Here is the input.
Amino acid sequence: MEPGLPYESSLTDVAPNGAEQVFDDVKTSRLFEIIEALNRSAVA
Here is the structure.
């Protein structure tokens, strides 16, 4: 999963500024932690 996905359409169709407009800072950080963990597990 690409880390930039939360800044692309369909999320930006609803929230033009991306994930930060939908989630607070803690949840946005956690979202990216999960994306990174998924990417690491997919490579392993």
